Each structure stands twice: as C-alpha cells, then as structure tokens.
C-alpha cells in the first residue's frame, strides 16, 4: 500500500504532472454538499474553495491552501451511488475513453471540459467499478501527499483480479505485481484473508491495487474502488467520525502497512483510514 505517485518535495507537496495511469485525484458526489463539507471539514481539517463551474455545485478540499480532493452534488434526476471515485491521469482523455469502450468498459460521463482545469470522463470497468479519467490543464490533481487528511492509496475491490487487471493494464500498460496475502493482510470487513491481490506499478512504482474478494465482496456494494486517507491516529479518528454521524464498517486492525479501518460517511460513501506503520 506504499504509493509514490509523482515527485514531491520534502514537505510532501506535489509539483509535477502525474504519470498517465497514476491516481491523481479523488472526488465525492453527494446529495447534500453542505452536510458533506461539515463532516469532512471536521474529520480531516479540510477547508474548501469553489471548483469548476461546469461541474455544477463543486468544491475543492484544501489543507494549508493545497488541494487534496473534490466534493460535488449529484444530479437530482440521476440515481447514482454516493462514493469516492479515483481519477487516473491521462494525456488524452478522449483517446483513453475510447480505449475504455473498446476494452469492455463503459463511459457514462464525458469526455467534457471542466472549465480551464482540464478535461474529464467517468466510466466503469467490465466488473462495474466506477473510476474517472483526468487530462490536466490548470489543475494537475492532488497537490500534497503523505500528511494527515490526504489520499494515501486507492484499491479496487472486486470478485477476481485476472480479467480486470488485464483491462487496466491495457489502458495504461501497468506492470502487474502479484503477492500472497497472509493473515496480517486480511481485508478489513472480510471474514478471510485474500491471496488474490495485484499491485499495479508504473516504472516499478506501486500506484494502485486490485484485490479479489470472491464471495466475501459485499453484495450490496459490488465491485468498487476504495480510497485510503492518511491519519495520525486511527482510533481517535474513529471516535471523531462516530460523533459526526459516520459509521464504522470494519473496526481498526493492525496490518503490515499500518493500522486500518473501513468507514462510511453519513450518506454511506465508503473509505478507509490508514495510520502508517513505523
């Protein structure tokens, strides 16, 4: 779960364009934006600034003035799941979207311009998991990593890894690194450890994961991307989350990567908290 998405200075501030295929941004679409801002502002210490007007009611979350994530309003006439969505960097979103279609995925939104920020599309892989594509212009993506309140990792949770890994590798030429998961890597919220795990790498760097859960994948959720957020104290954050109306889906447990818990916000959007080991 160690991510090195792009160059950063000693403060963790990103300062270069993301390599194509790297998760470069995470965005949450909700029914009640004001309530979401209150929740995440209190949970992670985020402040907010307006985002692209083209995206409707949409704001960018900031830490010390540096952008880390986005929150927007779901169209009232569309019944879509409330979920965190990772965006994969690309040089040409139109070509990438066409590659998604040709590889068995679907494109539900775009490609379209997000004002001067860049160009985007939102699609789903053959298993149904939703992800975004981002062609940067003025907005490169998440501007700081490795500090509390920032995205730490993105992992696809699905039934099996082989076919879906082939889909993503066809889009961005990922190198696939398979690993055996022992008891220490048991997935929070699952009753058993999972050895069906692939790390997607670019130029030897881990950038995302795919974990096959088989029959233990939650039926009510189906295949989905899970975003992990850095925190300094998982247990303390869980107490704060509960007080803000969130829900603990899988209690904190120690793994080889650190202490992890799976949670949901008041509208049901799932995400994970990671207190790094060491």
Automatic annotation (TrEMBL):
The record's annotation in PROSITE patterns points to: VOC
VOC domain: from which residue to which, for each copy? 22-136, 150-276
Q: Which PANTHER family match?
A: CONSERVED PROTEIN (PTHR33993:SF10), GLYOXALASE-RELATED (PTHR33993)
Give the protein's recorded name. Answer: VOC family protein
Organism equals Streptomyces mexicanus
Q: What is the lineage of its organism?
A: Bacteria, Bacillati, Actinomycetota, Actinomycetes, Kitasatosporales
């Amino acid at each position: 779960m160690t991510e090195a998405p792009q160059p950063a200075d000693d403060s963790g501030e990103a300062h270069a364009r993301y390599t194509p295929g790297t998760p470069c941004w995470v965005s949450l679409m909700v029914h009640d934006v004001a309530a979401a801002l209150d929740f995440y502002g209190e949970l992670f210490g985020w402040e907010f600034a307006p985002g692209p007007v083209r995206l409707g009611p949409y704001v960018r979350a900031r830490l010390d003035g540096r952008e880390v994530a986005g929150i927007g309003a779901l169209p009232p006439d569309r019944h879509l799941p409330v979920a965190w969505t990772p965006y994969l960097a690309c040089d040409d979103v139109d070509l990438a979207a066409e590659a998604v279609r040709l590889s068995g995925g679907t494109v539900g939104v775009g490609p379209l311009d997000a004002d001067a920020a860049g160009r985007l599309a939102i699609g789903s892989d053959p298993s149904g998991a939703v992800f975004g594509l981002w062609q940067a212009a003025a907005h490169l993506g998440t501007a700081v990593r490795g500090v509390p309140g920032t995205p730490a990792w993105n992992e696809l949770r699905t039934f099996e890894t082989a076919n879906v890994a082939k889909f993503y590798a066809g889009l961005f030429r990922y190198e696939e690194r398979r690993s055996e998961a022992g008891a220490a890597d048991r997935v929070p919220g699952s009753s058993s450890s999972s050895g069906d795990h692939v790390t997607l790498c670019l130029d030897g760097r881990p950038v995302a994961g795919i974990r096959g859960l088989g029959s233990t994948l939650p039926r009510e959720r189906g295949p989905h991307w899970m975003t992990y957020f850095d925190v300094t104290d998982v247990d303390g954050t869980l107490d704060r989350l509960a007080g803000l109306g969130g829900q603990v889906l899988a209690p904190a447990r120690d793994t080889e990567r650190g202490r992890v818990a799976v949670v949901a916000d008041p509208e049901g959007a799932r995400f994970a908290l990671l207190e790094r080991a060491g």
